[in-house]
Amino acid sequence: MAEFKDVVGHEQVIQHMQNAIRQKKISHAYLLCGEAGSGKRLVAEAFAKTILCEEGGIEACGKCKSCKQAESGNHPDFRIVVREKATLGVKEIREQVTGDVQIKPYSSAYKIYLIDEAEKMTEEAQNALLKTIEEPPEYAVFLLSVTRQELLLQTVLSRCVLLPFYPVAPEKIKRFLMEKRGVPDYLAESAAAFAGGLVGRAVQYAESESFIEQRNDVLHLVKYIDDMTMAEVMENVKLFASKKDVATEYLDLILMWYRDVLMYKATKNVNALMFMDELEAVSAQAGKRSFENLQGIVEALEQVKQRLKSNVNFENAVELLLLYMKEV
């Protein structure tokens, strides 16, 4: 299990949790709300590990018996609710939570329940949980992690302390990827920018062979499209068509490239580039394309992204886009 020092960003959430520990005002129910990959599970586990720690500080010591049990995933007073189907039903809540919570903690002052993707609880399951969080035992703490809080009953929401998870600055994510995960700077830059402030997603991209492949495909296209024959352009159209399920990711990478070119043309600021390792190619394109042409490509990319949501003919849309990129 993670500790607070392992978390990238989310300083306000961690500060709230640590203040609650310091002041001995830990609430019975917390709602951690943010996109998938934002770090909710990591923070929830760090919080649980800290309040179970025998040292009683605002950071888990990592050395006591409780911390070692938490680290091994075998702490008797920390329960992760298991969902076996697409939804979390009342049976699971009764068996794993409401039927268990009356048993006092084995070795700690608290007994903690983590319900990941809590919005997948059925209404009946939520009502069963509600009865417990309305009048919980003094030692019970419930951590509900959600991506869509609107799917929870208002009565459940009203019993929880809301902790929103906001996007983390790309620079923080890049530094984390490089220092803690050993990711090369150029790849860390792209993954951090592409992740939309979600650390988990950035790690996935940086360590994914498919993302590296996508990046290489896109670099080959944008660097050499001016010199490609029509046959080579059509080969790239077919490449996109064969990977239709990740088309948006390809388009986002192309968009990042042309925004880099536009940014460099306007400012000459190397540090602002997402494709910093391709400075020579970025500079070359900035020198031969006008502001109007670059802005036109960016707008065309945005339009294609929107059109693809409307189920237009995929290959035709991509073909027109690539021809436009080649011509301007």
What can you tell me about this protein's structure?
With 328 residues, this protein is of the alpha/beta class. It has 2 domains: 4-164, Rossmann fold (3-Layer(aba) Sandwich); 208-327, Zinc Finger, Delta Prime, domain 3 (Up-down Bundle). It is 55% helix and 7% strand. It has helices at 11-22, 40-52, 65-72, 90-98, 123-134, 154-157, 170-181, 185-194, 199-206, 209-224, 230-242, 247-267, 279-288, 291-308, 314-327; strands spanning 29-33, 78-80, 111-115, 140-146, 161-164. A 5-stranded parallel beta sheet has the order 2-3-4-1-5, covered by helices on one side. It is elongated, with a radius of gyration of 24 Å. The model has no long low-confidence stretch (mean pLDDT 87).
Layout of secondary structure:
Elements: H1 11-22, E1 29-33, H2 40-52, H3 65-72, E2 78-80, H4 90-98, E3 111-115, H5 123-134, E4 140-146, H6 154-157, E5 161-164, H7 170-181, H8 185-194, H9 199-206, H10 209-224, H11 230-242, H12 247-267, H13 279-288, H14 291-308, H15 314-327
Parallel strand pairs: 1-4, 1-5, 2-3, 3-4
Q: How would you concisely characterize the structure shown here?
A:
The chain is of the alpha/beta class and 328 residues long. Helix content is 55%, strand content 7%. The termini are far apart.
Which range best describes the helical content: under 10%, 10-25%, 25-40%, 40-55%, 55-70% or over 70%?
40-55%
Q: What would you report as the Rg, rounded to the nearest angstrom?
A: 24 Å
Give the structural class. alpha/beta
What's the end-to-end separation, in Å?
A: 52 Å
- Unreliable spans are none
Provide the β-strand percentage band. 5-15%
SSE pattern, N- to C-terminal: HEHHEHEHEHEHHHHHHHHH
The overall strand count is 5
Main sheet? 5 strands, parallel
Tally of individual domains:
2
Compute the number of helices.
15
